[in-house]
Amino acid sequence: MGSVDPERDTQARDVYEHVRLGDFDALRSSMTDAANANTTDEQLQSMREYAALDTPSETRVLSWQWNTTSDLSAYEVVHEYDHQQKVVQFSALMVRQGEGPWLVERVHINHFSPAEAALTAFTLQGKTPLHYGVLALAVLAPLFCLFTAVVAGWRRRWVWMIVSLFGVGQLTLNWATGAAEFHVAQFALLGAGYAKGPGALDPWIILVALPIPALLFWLFRGWRPKKPKAGKVSGADHPTAATPD
Question: Domains in the chain and their CATH numbers?
Answer without folding.
Answer: 6-114 (3.10.450.50), 129-219 (no CATH)
